[in-house]
Design a protein that fits this description.
The chain has strands spanning 3-7, 10-12, 18-25, 33-39, 46-51, 58-60, 68-73, 78-83, 92-99, 113-114, 118-122. The chain has 124 residues and is mainly β.
Length: 124
């Protein structure tokens, strides 16, 4: 059974950093493109970042470019989202998702498997 588990969320002050992890079980993550999405209360789900199965291609939403970095360690079956210079508007539940296709994309409908999410709260 394909399973994705997010971790690393928490409460951080504005300007701080967090690193989210997305760990897969039941399948080899290296064959999948991975996306990070977020949803704040009362708002639509937003694509944040994506990485191709090879790791050579990455994509970012304009709202996080220059602050967030996605990476993957296929040997550990894990994808990371390093989030720096966090802002209160980054507050949301963050989800990772896997697509059996190789290409990075921020289109949520492409993704087949989703994790349960991890809460990120940016507040002083």
């Amino acid at each position: 059974q394909l399973q994705l588990v997010e971790s690393g969320g928490g409460l951080v002050e504005p300007g701080g950093s967090l690193r989210l992890s997305c760990t897969a079980s039941g399948f080899t993550l290296g064959y999948y493109a991975i996306g990070w999405f977020r949803q704040a209360p009362g708002k639509e789900r937003e694509g944040v970042s994506s990485i191709s199965s090879s790791g050579r291609t990455t994509m970012y939403a304009d709202s996080v470019k220059g602050r967030f970095t996605i990476s993957r360690d296929n040997a550990k079956n894990t994808v990371y989202l390093q989030m720096n210079s966090l802002k209160p508007e980054d507050t949301a539940v963050y989800y990772c998702a896997a697509d059996v296709g190789p290409r990075a994309t921020l289109r949520a409908e492409v993704y087949d498997s989703w994790g349960q999410g991890t809460q990120v709260t940016v507040s002083s």
